[in-house]
Structure formats: structure tokens, C-alpha cells
Amino acid sequence: MKSMGTKKIVYGAFMASLITVATMVIHIPSAFNGYIHLGDGLVLISGILLGPMTGGISAGIGSMMADFLSGYAFYAPATLIIKALASFFSGYLYQRLIKRSGIVSFRLVPFISSGLTCSTIVTGGYFLFECVVYGKSAALLNIPLNLVQNSFSLLIAGTLLPFLLRRNELRSLVLKKDYEE
After folding, report:
1. How many domains is the chain built from?
2. pTM more than 0.70
3. Section 82-87 average pLDDT
4. I need a labelling partner for 73 at 20 to 30 A (CA). Which of 19, 118, 129, 166 fits?
5. Whole-angstrom Cα distance, residue 3 to residue 13?
């Protein structure tokens, strides 16, 4: 039992670093100090593979670190919260939807449902943050760019996840609840 808890911590730290790198590698600046990147695909994968708690913590920390390292420290606190919530709720939803079937493999409907949840939280979260900081009309300008980012992230996650779920080691993490460790 403790072995699984240790593995989740290690995978969580590894996922946080992967999210940081994926966010920083392809980095296209957008309006109002934001940027388009592929890290959100891994934010979604983090919640699905590691579960809501571990995945959410990894996604929040990894995304926040990318903001710090890329010179977007102003966004870092909001990013920590938004990406952690996105990964948490998408991972929770995915687990609930696949638990009914009892089969841990790539499932399209749970994946799309989780992906749309993740995208909605990210887009909505940044919209609310930017409304406070820049005003509503300015925040509206970033919504299309967030939707483009989300589309690419879903494509990346949808491409990687079937391969990742073929690994027994990763598949065993999916239905393992964070609080059972």
C-alpha cells in the first residue's frame, strides 16, 4: 500500500516537471501577457492518470512553475488555482465515468467530457482573473485564444492518453483513489 503512495508522489513530481516543460517549449504570446502552449494537454492527462488530488497538485505546481520561469509571475497564483482545479475536476469526472465500466483503457466519451470540463475551467478561470485585472471587454479578447489552446491540448492529450493507458504501471494508478494510500 505504501509503495503505491510513493509511486504516486514520484509520478506527480515527474508530471509537474513535464507540464512545466510542455508549457515552456511551444510558447506563443497572446494578448494581455498570456501565451498559448501545449501544457494543458498534460494538465488533463495528469488528472486522468494520477487522480484528482495528485493530478491537481501536479498540474497546478507544474503550470505555476512555467509561469515563474517564463517571466509571467503575475499570472502564477491564478495559474496554480485554475490548473489545479481543471485537473482535479477533469480527473474526478473521468474516474467516475470509467468506474461504471470497470475497464481501464481509453474511453472516448469520458475523455471528451473530462477534456471539455478542463477546457471550461481553464477558459473561465482566466476570464474571471482577467476581468478583475484588465476589465471585462479586454478579458473577452483572450477567450478565442484560450479556445485555440484548449483545442490543441485536447488533441495532444487524446493522442497520448491511449498509449499511456496501455502501460500496466500507469493503468494501475487510474482507479487508485488518492485517499486510499
Report:
1. 1
2. yes
3. 98
4. 118
5. 16
